[in-house]
Design a protein that fits this description.
six-stranded mixed sheet; 38 strands; alpha/beta; 32 helices; seven-stranded mixed sheet
């Protein structure tokens, strides 16, 4: 059953026999060979003679010397057999997965990735060898990691360099001549593990079979090791002593050590204990008691959760916040219900298949940015380990700078704020039509895929992609985007086919197809055709007893290609993570090199049809067909807070990073901040100081630590000491203050109360409009008119119908009204798509995510005249804007437009927002005006404005010619119509110097300001029509009407319409079977 084990046992037995005979006969170390060994050797000789194999030795006698000669010859024959098995192509596959037969390959840095160029007419295209293809199917874990034998083989490959102080994997390759770290032939510096992990020592203990001891060694420097290891980091491999041949696969060993312990009974508890009590860690062998000081950690990605761990062990209370939704773990696991913690015997009991695992949000980029090449159950383990800590509160859906400012944090009782907010704004490349429909940022795609769970069979999330697809970029994000897009397309088509067939059977195919427009039907039919072909391929593969070859089908439909402006060997992915390039090619990704993007080419429907590139050699233009183009051109650091509150944090010379500072002690016990060079690895303080309170920054926010997961964690490992030093001074552990845990519980209670959002009531205002009133004290207190929020429910509390969790996708909703004294906030949703219809399932008392406020407060003049134009749901936004305008001494004329009278709601709020209110309906009965100054009208909003201006509704109380500012909120078509009418039929009646503003309803996802880039909006010069700039609508939704590219907005709002309409039909069916809505 295990030929490698049997072979190894045989050879070890022969070597032991040979060693004993040699010790007795040649080395004279023992007096004689034992009788047992002599008998064993004689039996082997007898068996060899019985085979009559002329190749086997046959000594004339059986003396000890002759038996030794027989054993030596037999071992020589075995060595020849091994060589034969390795070199004969007919036999080599049989031992390909034997660690004992693995020979390290020589490293050719110019050829680390073996490729083929399949098309002479397209020499830029490179693919992986066909014989190495892997058949990926869906979103289960794609790399099950090495088994124990493979891991043990790697530990024995290691030279245990620490014994000679040569462990460059940990300490780096230092070049004494240059006094810097050496570089490999690709120009990559070799500093070793950023965490200074004791790698070689770990290998030694693992060799000896001591996995718990090995893990304890890892946890000295890397206590959050589930977040590192295989398919995450490789700095240690780059620094391995083997620079001319394959390095030791250290990440596999590290992860293997962890999983060895987790596989033990109570392994989860053993790991958790080592994070709190580790006798091998001299600096902090056990966690300290509560010292009465509290730290706010902003961001719960790798830097944030690692920093939280260290601060907890130093005795601080920690509140960790993140803008993402964070799902709670079962209360029995964490003790959150007050009934104690249920110990976990078996790690498998908290693990889930990745395509079924709840998307918890904890871990930041590790959750949404890293693909299923890595086992995200490790994030569950990390969240569990930290959530069990009594002095840690984890709060999702909290935006620093929106829900909570720095000053408010300190006023609330925090002693320090640490910012680990991660990467920020994606790079916008200079490609013509670069936000055409079908062109998206990679961060937008990955976040939509991996935070909404669009890849799940039961998901209601909408993410529509098409083939052929191109990914522009050469980094690891481009690699991940390409592999996940290729894997998602078959999932999408199969889901489309299954839901279409069921809906057609229930409603009739004619009725279903009637909901789609012509272009949508073309996309739908393409997905149905492809879904049918995928189904046939599955049937074929099942009959043949093999995995389906979905990549082959996708290649026939155009496939997915990465396009990079330089050679593959110059790409960041190749230089830093060439293993990931190999894995991507194994899945069927193509790589096109030497192509610079020039223009996205639209079809007749203004959807992407092709992308034009300029060849790097002769400068020729090459046009590649594409229905989707995802751009992965890098990101900039997240300095959004400084953009929102200028002057808070000094920036570096390039205004990319916060400027690092060191905290220098004064003689009186206080500290001053001294600027430091951007690459200073010991400078973690921003330039913020308020009454002796400081703010530090970590991870991708820091110029010396940005770039990858393990560097982010290293920043926390080094930076927590600086925080501790400033907050506790030089006090030893024995002299640090100790406060009762009840003090922490009271503080945490206040913070939870302020930052947690809960549903108070759900009200139906019209047949298609629902109001959700939540209690969210901090969010409501910070709301300014015009701003909005991201509403989501939690899977842990969402109702399920037919196995489908009724989850609300990120939904941008404005605050219709707030009651800051009571902490209440009103959110109003128009029931159009699936998510907006699910607002009605929310129940009083249910915790929800109300992230924000985000966007920008609407700018209003003082003592002027403002015209508000609201269409349908847009009127809810204008309630607070109109009231604020009047409070600032403005006169307000308000045109509130509805399709029909039954869509009208909240009369009191409307009247309070306007001096003059004109109520119009497109058709049917009017909405009666109650005040003498108000008017009613039947017709669209342009007709209503014209009728008012021309006196058809009576003498205007506020002439439009006196209007200084026009604020328009409604559908994209309505806002575009008003924008045009201002220069058309309304022009004679308007002040020619008025400013026209629209609250732009771009498609949105994260709403955290310049992170995912789904909300990009194109602006044009109103005179020339040339592109002016591309803006993020979630940063500032109020944009000049005259600069808007309305066609672009309309197109981007249609990027998921096929999926959205199918989801709507599917939701109809679910709610028909069981309706959990409360209104």
């Amino acid at each position: 059953e295990d030929p490698e084990l049997a072979t190894s046992q045989m050879v070890v037995s022969l070597l032991d026999l040979e060693s004993e005979f040699q010790a007795a006969i040649r080395q004279k170390k023992i007096p004689e060979v034992s009788a047992v060994s002599r008998q064993r050797a004689a039996e082997l000789l007898l068996r060899a003679r019985s085979t009559r194999d002329p190749g086997l030795p046959d000594p004339p006698g059986e003396s000890d010397a002759e038996l030794l000669s027989f054993l030596e010859t037999l071992l020589q024959r075995y060595a020849l057999w091994c060589r034969w098995r390795l070199e004969d192509p007919r036999l080599a596959p049989g031992i390909a997965d034997w660690p004992s037969f693995h020979l390290p390959e020589t490293l050719d840095y110019s050829n680390l990735v073996h490729t083929e160029r399949p098309r002479p007419e397209l020499p830029e295209e490179r693919i992986g060898p066909l014989g190495r293809r892997r058949r990926r199917d869906g979103f289960g874990l794609t790399d099950p990691r090495m088994n124990r034998r493979d891991v043990l083989g790697e530990t024995h490959y290691c030279l245990l360099c620490h014994e000679r102080e040569k462990d460059s994997c940990s300490k780096g390759f230092f070049d004494a001549k240059t006094a810097t770290f050496a570089r490999n032939p690709l120009g990559v510096a070799l500093p070793g593990c950023p965490l200074d992990e004791k790698i070689s020592e770990m290998h030694q203990l693992r060799r000896e079979g001591d996995s718990v001891g090995a893990l304890a060694l890892v946890c000295i420097d890397n206590p959050m090791c589930p977040g590192t290891g295989h398919r995450i980091c490789n700095d240690c491999m780059k620094g391995c002593i083997f620079q001319k041949q394959e390095p030791v696969d250290i990440p596999q060993i590290e992860t293997g050590v962890l999983t060895d312990v987790l596989a033990l009974p109570w392994g989860v508890e053993i790991y958790g204990l080592l994070t709190r009590w580790n006798p091998l860690a001299p600096a902090r062998p056990f966690a300290l008691g509560y010292n009465g000081m509290n730290v706010l950690v902003v961001g719960l990605g790798p830097a944030g959760y690692t920093l939280a761990h260290y601060l907890l062990n130093e005795g601080f209370g920690v509140v960790g916040i993140d803008g993402l939704k964070i799902e709670p773990l079962p209360a029995a696991w964490t003790g959150a219900d007050g009934h104690g913690i249920l110990p976990i015997r078996d790690y498998v009991s908290i693990s889930r298949p990745l395509d079924r695992r709840p998307l918890a949000g904890f871990g930041g980029v590790s959750e949404y940015g890293i693909t299923v090449r890595w086992d995200k159950n490790f994030l569950t383990l990390l969240q569990l380990t930290l959530a069990r800590r009594r002095r840690l509160a984890i709060l999702g859906g909290i935006r620093f700078g929106g829900t909570l400012s720095a000053e408010q944090a300190f006023d609330a009782g925090f002693d320090h704020v640490a910012v680990a907010a991660g990467a920020g704004r994606p790079t916008i490349i200079g490609m013509k039509n670069n936000i055409l429909r079908g062109v998206r940022k990679a961060s937008d795609f990955l976040m939509a895929l991996q935070l909404t769970g669009a890849f799940k069979e039961e998901a209601l999330a909408n993410l529509q992609v098409e083939l052929p697809a191109l990914v522009i970029g050469g980094g690891l994000t481009a690699i991940d985007t390409a592999t996940e897009l290729l894997a998602y397309y078959p999932v999408q088509c199969e889901k489309t086919l299954a839901r279409y067939e069921r809906m057609a059977a229930e409603k009739g195919e004619t009725a279903v197809r009637a909901m789609f427009e012509r272009e949508e039907l073309e996309i739908l039919d393409r997905q149905l055709t492809h879904g049918t072909e995928i189904r046939r391929e599955r049937e074929r593969a099942a009959a043949a007893g093999e995995k389906p070859d979905l990549a082959r089908l996708c290649q026939q439909w155009g496939g997915v290609s990465i396009v990079y402006r330089r050679a593959m060997e110059e790409s960041p992915a190749y230089r830093l993570n060439h293993e990931e390039v190999i894995k991507a090619l194994e899945e069927g990704i193509r790589f096109l090199e030497g192509l610079e993007p020039e223009e996205a080419v639209p079809d007749d429907s203004r959807h992407l049809a092709a992308v034009r590139f300029r060849r790097s050699g002769g400068g020729e233009i090459l046009e590649l067909p594409a229905r989707n183009c995802l751009v992965a051109a890098g990101t900039t650091p997240n300095i959004t807070y400084e953009k929102e509150f200028p002057g808070t944090f000094p920036l570096d010379a390039r205004r990319r990073f916060f400027l690092p500072h060191r905290a220098v002690a004064r003689g009186d016990g206080s500290y001053r901040l001294d600027p430091a060079p951007p690459d200073a690895e010991d400078a973690f303080f921003t330039g913020y100081e308020r009454g002796g309170r400081f703010i530090t920054f970590f991870g991708d926010n820091h110029p010396a630590y940005n770039g990858n997961v393990v560097k982010a964690m290293a920043s926390a490992r080094r930076g927590y000491r600086e925080i501790t030093s400033v907050l506790t001074g030089a006090a030893s552990d024995d002299h640090r203050p100790v406060r009762p845990d009840e003090d922490w519980e009271r503080f945490r209670g206040r913070i939870d109360e302020a930052l947690t959002a809960r549903v108070v009531e759900v009200n139906r205002l019209t047949p298609t409009i629902v109001e959700v009133v939540v209690r969210a004290p901090a969010a409501s207190a910070n709301f300014q008119p015009g701003q909005f929020f991201r509403l989501q429910n939690l899977e842990a509390h969402a109702p399920r119908v037919a196995g489908t969790p009724l989850l609300i996708e990120p939904l941008a909703l404005t605050g219709a009204w707030v009651d800051a004294e009571r902490g209440l906030l009103s959110l109003i949703a128009l029931e159009l798509g699936g998510s907006s219809r699910l607002c009605a399932v929310l129940r009083p008392g249910e915790p929800v995510v109300v992230m924000g406020p985000t966007g920008s407060a609407t700018e209003l003049p003082e003592g002027g005249t403002v015209m508000l134009c609201g269409g349908g749901l847009g009127n809810a936004v204008l309630f607070s804007i109109g009231k604020k305008a009047r409070q600032r001494g403005n006169r307000v004329v308000y045109f509130a437009a509805y399709k029909k009278a039954e869509d009208f709601y909240r009369r009191e709020e409307l009247e309070a927002a306007a001096d003059v209110l004109v109520l119009s309906v497109d058709r049917g009965e009017t909405i009666p005006a109650r005040r003498p100054t108000d008017r009613e009208f039947v017709g669209n909003i342009i007709e209503a404005m014209l009728a008012y201006a021309t006196g058809k509704l009576g003498v205007p109380e506020i002439p439009l010619s006196e209007v200084d500012r026009v604020i328009v909120i409604g559908s994209d078509r309505m806002m575009a119509a008003v924008a045009r009418a201002r220069h058309g039929v309304l022009a004679p009646h308007l002040n020619p110097r008025h400013v026209g503003i629209g609250s732009i309803n771009s498609p949105m996802q994260c709403m955290m300001k310049e992170v995912c880039a789904q909300c990009l909006q194109r602006h044009v010069d109103p005179v020339t029509g040339e592109e002016k700039e591309i803006v993020f609508s979630c940063f500032n939704q109020d944009q000049l009407l005259d600069e808007m590219d309305w066609e672009n907005l309309a197109a981007r709002l249609r990027q998921n319409t096929v999926s959205e309409k199918l989801t709507g039909l599917w939701l109809d069916g679910l709610l028909a079977s069981e309706d959990p809505r409360v209104v």
